[in-house]
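Renewal narrative, Specific Aim 1. Our central claim is that a sequence can be written position by position from structural information alone. The example that follows is taken directly from our test logs and has not been curated for this report. It begins with the structure tokens describing the chain, in the order in which they were read.
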């Protein structure tokens, strides 16, 4: 049976997902709320949605809403998720899951106690590199995996200034200093989306920003943060290690590929650059770029992207890659010709959530997996603040451990 959805936040990212949820046959109606009422009204009008609510509290109190999708500012998700679950609503949340250990634990507790669906919309779970590597792992072609790398390399000049100005208002510089390691899921989630393990300890290094423009300035920062780039080295359960980079001042074409990955095993290895992807073993090197590269689903000038900063539009126009072909067969026909994004992941994420709610099953990026994608970054940021001190990472377990 189709269910009703409340969209929380009507910003640049939310608008793209509003259309997909609206057209999914498992969703009966989409309503919107935003602290800036005019943005909610505009999104409802542009996407022909069902209507608006005056506030988040009003939305989750309404019996007309069965589930919510949270697209608010990245540091606000944790408390909103718990509040919605406790109000009896299924929850889809944009990344990250939350920004503290306690907030993440509270979500796990709420999911366990309510039995409701929680899903984090981590795009890298369906990044073509992760999909390819996941299949290689399942086939045993890596042998024993012992090392993985994930980079999220997105320069502030490539759309982030505009995005923070849009969401942060006059005080945008205070929030634009958001710590890179508290947004870890695109890098960690890509690696661990293929490799079924979790991080147990970390040592991290933060690079103090030198731009001097009031962003990443501890005197201004809401987060007391002056790191614009950071690197973390994680120990993994069962042996092995993972290195991630979160870079916000970097000469790199993030509009072409903002996340990139490497996995090394005893029998095979995978490596990726901005324009080239290869699979390697002792016999040689195979260029698999044709399997991994995505193709535009819409033009960057499409009217639906009018509110998205031009430098960010690349993330919203990418369609499927060849490696998605098998999985895309389950995508409803009503979504097939709509815009996709983040290397072909958007359709899969929307369908995952709808199916999980309809079938009362765990989505792939459920609360426990979301914690394993998010919590290591929280601890890594603390390690960086302590000069690289190696810190243990608590594990929230797996669903069947509850």
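The sequence written for that structure reads:
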């Amino acid at each position: 049976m189709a269910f009703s959805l409340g969209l929380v936040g009507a910003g640049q990212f939310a608008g793209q997902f509003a259309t997909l949820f609206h057209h999914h046959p498992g969703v009966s109606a989409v309503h919107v709320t935003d602290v800036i009422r005019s943005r909610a009204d505009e999104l409802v009008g542009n996407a022909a949605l069902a209507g608006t609510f005056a506030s988040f509290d009003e939305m989750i109190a309404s019996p007309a809403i069965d589930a919510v999708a949270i697209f608010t500012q990245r540091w606000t998700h944790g408390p909103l998720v718990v509040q919605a679950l406790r109000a009896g609503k299924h929850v889809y949340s944009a990344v990250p899951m939350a920004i503290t250990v306690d907030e993440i634990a509270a979500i796990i507790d709420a999911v366990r106690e309510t039995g409701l669906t929680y899903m984090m919309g981590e795009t890298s779970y369906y990044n073509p590199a992760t999909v390819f590597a996941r299949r290689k792992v399942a086939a045993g072609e890596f042998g024993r995996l012992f090392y993985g790398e994930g980079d999220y390399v997105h320069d502030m000049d490539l759309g982030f200034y505009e995005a923070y100005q849009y969401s942060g208002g006059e005080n945008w510089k205070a929030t634009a200093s958001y710590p890179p390691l508290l947004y870890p899921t695109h890098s960690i989630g890509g690696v661990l989306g293929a490799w079924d393990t979790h991080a147990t300890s970390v040592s991290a290094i933060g690079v103090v920003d030198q731009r001097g423009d009031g962003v990443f300035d501890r005197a201004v920062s809401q987060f007391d943060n002056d790191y614009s780039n950071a690197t973390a080295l994680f120990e993994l359960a069962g042996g092995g290690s993972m290195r991630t980079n979160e870079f916000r001042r970097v000469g790199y074409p993030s509009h072409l590929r903002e996340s990139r990955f490497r996995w090394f095993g005893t029998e095979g290895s995978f490596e990726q650059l901005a324009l080239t992807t290869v699979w390697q073993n002792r016999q040689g090197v195979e260029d698999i770029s044709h399997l991994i590269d995505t193709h535009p689903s819409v033009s960057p000038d499409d009217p639906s992207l009018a509110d998205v900063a031009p430098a960010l539009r690349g993330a919203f126009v990418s369609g499927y890659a060849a490696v998605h072909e098998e999985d895309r067969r389950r995508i409803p026909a009503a979504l097939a010709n709509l815009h996709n994004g983040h290397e072909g992941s958007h359709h899969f994420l929307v369908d995952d959530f709808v199916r999980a709610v309809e079938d009362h099953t765990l989505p792939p990026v459920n609360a426990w997996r979301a914690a394993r994608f998010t919590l290591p970054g929280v601890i890594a940021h603390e390690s960086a603040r302590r000069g690289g001190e190696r810190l243990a990472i608590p594990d929230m377990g797996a669903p069947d451990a509850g």
